[in-house]
Specification:
Distance between the termini: 56 Å
Number of domains: 1
Oligomer: single chain
Order of helices and strands: EHEHEHEHEHEHHE
Strand order of the largest sheet: 3-2-1-4-5-6-7
Number of strands: 7
Radius of gyration: 19 Å
CATH topology: Rossmann fold
Largest sheet: 7 strands, parallel
Length: about 270
């Protein structure tokens, strides 16, 4: 399905990462995948995951630094020549503000979340654009908290809303060149980054009880959708947000057994 295609995945932290779920599907289907990581600890995690692929290319990159993004793009071009896909699975916000109210979020925390979680998609796309093949597919990762309030998601929800807007505008810019830009809105997944959100285990439990499929989203679920969006099977799709959340996004109230109705003191 991906034989002969080559590209890069930004944001694999460990085996639980959605990015790894996507990368695994790409490699299983014949793609040649390069990886970007940040720092020695994440490099060690990635090396363990790629133990059976000793020739896989890995590039260190702090995606808040545009010069580092450009350096990775230059290194990738030297190694591969052209690019058929890019996966953006990068997000960050100070976890001290991923709890309680959104209102106290200070400007520096807000801007950092926007920079790393949203603007980096623009910067990466701009740096890789000169050697993207026609038919190249770019994929970002988002979450329902971008369009609806999710307790404790706070500034990350605002950043993801910006990321989704970037997806649409980039899709418009690059569409005439045959380059597509889409995003997956996955349900909550028990990843390293997600565990920084206060009460995240409760979020998982609620999702499992309310989603029509009655199960939590896994990296494998997102991986299959990612494979589709990065392959030629989805060639007619761009600017889309694909939900991979067991149907949670279509549910207003859902299964009443999921709620502790007896706890409502106003009855």
């Amino acid at each position: 399905m991906m034989k002969g295609k080559k590209g890069i995945v930004f944001g694999v932290a460990n085996q639980r990462s959605i990015a790894w779920g996507i990368a695994s599907k790409l490699m299983e289907n014949g793609a040649e995948v390069a990886f970007s990581y940040m720092g020695e600890r994440l490099k060690g995690n990635l090396e363990k995951l790629l133990a059976d692929k000793p020739n896989a290319k890995m590039y260190d990159c702090d995606c808040s630094d545009e010069s580092q993004i450009q350096r990775v793009a230059d290194q990738y071009k030297a190694d591969f020549g052209t690019c058929d896909f890019v996966v953006h699975a990068i997000a960050f916000a100070d976890k001290s503000y991923l709890e309680g109210d959104f209102l106290p979020t200070p400007k520096d925390v807000f801007l950092q979340a926007m920079d790393v979680s949203a603007y980096s998609l623009v910067s990466i796309t701009r740096s890789f654009r000169p050697f993207m093949n026609r038919g190249c597919s770019i994929l970002a990762l988002t979450y329902l908290g971008s369009e609806r309030v999710v307790q404790n998601y706070n500034v990350m929800g605002v950043a993801k809303a910006a990321l989704e807007a970037c997806v649409r505008y980039l899709a418009s810019d690059l569409g005439p060149h045959g380059i597509r830009v889409n995003a997956i809105s996955a349900g909550p997944v028990n990843t390293l980054a997600a565990r920084g959100i206060s009460d995240f285990t409760h979020l998982l439990k609620i999702h499992r009880r309310v989603a029509p499929l009655r199960e939590n989203t896994t990296p494998e679920h997102a991986g299959g959708a990612g494979l589709f969006l990065l392959s030629d099977l989805s060639f007619g799709m761009t600017g889309e947000i694909m939900y991979v959340d067991g149907g949670y996004n279509v549910t207003a109230v859902g299964n009443l057994d999921a709620y502790n109705l007896s706890a409502d003191s106003k009855d």
